[in-house]
Amino acid sequence: MAQAGEIKRKLEKKYPKLSFRLVVIQTRGDEFQVGVFTKAIEEALLKNRVDIAVHSLKDLPTELPKGLCLAAFPKRLDPGDVLISKRRYTLQTLPKNAVVGTGSPRRKRQIQLIRPDLCLADIRGNLDTRVRKVIHGKKYAAAVVAKAGLKRLKKYLNFAVPIPLKEVMPAVGQAALGIETRKSDRTLIRLLKPLNDPRTKMQVCAERRFLKELRGGCRVPVGILSEIRQNKIRIRAAVFSTRSEAAVTGEIRGPASQSEKLAAILAKKLLKKGAGRLLREARS
Fold first, then answer.
1. For residue 32, what pLDDT band results from cuts at 50, 70 and 90?
2. CA-to-CA distance for 180 and 189, rounded, in angstroms?
3. In b/e form, how buried is each residue of 241-252, taking b as 16+ CB within 10 angstroms?
4. Last residue of a domain, one of 138, 162, 186
5. Number of domains the chain is built from
6. Mean per-residue pLDDT for 268-283?
7. 129-174 tens-digit pLDDT
8. What pLDDT sits at residue 218?
9. pLDDT for 178-199, tens place per residue?
10. Which of 62, 123, 230, 278 is least surrounded by Cβ atoms within 10 Å, i.e. has the fewest?
């Protein structure tokens, strides 16, 4: 709701004569199961029960349902992860064999490469719930979460220590939002256009193209970092094994205007180096 509220406020400021309303979408079963909530929102869009959907891009599949499109990508926040703990630990200062909460295969594998002694355990719930389990509970010494989520909540930042990007590479689309609507609604698409940040769009579309070429998904152990400077883009990416210390890494640079093409080339290079085998291993 925090990110939807943020977009609602921006639209109200841009269009003071228009009225915008937040709609709560209910899901059945396990609300934390990957894709369940996204699917419910997209069904609401297709059935005209809502007009705009605000997604965290790292949780949004690269293939959208027929009839829907991503109309805008607001400016991205810091894509890095943070370590949440009562004592403000870093990965290096965590006690030996400490229990660290994360359900992300990407985070687990990269952290294990730095601190193989740590016990990495799944931690369930929304961001608020996960942080409270660390701060008020005894099971977890720390948990890994996205820095952007805390900034949007405007909470718990005093318990957070940034993890350097060189240590833990972000997920595809991390810290970025995607605004989805119906392809046929040209008026809404025009209305949303001012919320788009061109640099963010180039970065996240490249990252999503990379994942699409890999035939990966939101839960595979893939890290990626795209940076744009002086109209040039640098994309670094890695696919990690879920069973060993094996990893396939690569990097590509070129004109930012060719970001998606470069990302596709990088994905194909990693597949030739064995990334496909690691992804199949992760899915099995």
1. very low
2. 9
3. bbeeeebbebeb
4. 162
5. 3
6. 93
7. 999 999 999 999 999 999 999 998 889 999 999 999 999 999 999 9
8. 64
9. 999 999 999 999 999 999 999 9
10. 230
Q: Which of 51, 59, 78, 185 is catalytic?
A: 59
Question: How many CA atoms, within 13 angstroms, populate the side-chain half-sphere of residue 46?
Answer: 12
Our answer to whether residue 59 is catalytic in this structure is yes
Residues 68 and 187 in one domain: yes
Closest CA to 178 of 47, 60, 51, 264: 60
Give pTM, 2 decimals. 0.92
The reply to whether 97 and 117 lie within a common domain is yes
Supply the range of the domain harboring residue 120. Answer: 81-162
**Which residues have a Cβ under 8 Å from the Cβ of 131 and sit 6 or more positions away?**
84, 143, 145, 150, 155, 156, 159
- Please report how many Cα atoms fall inside a 13 Å half-sphere around the Cα of residue 51, on the Cβ side: 12
- What tokens were used for 112? 């294990």
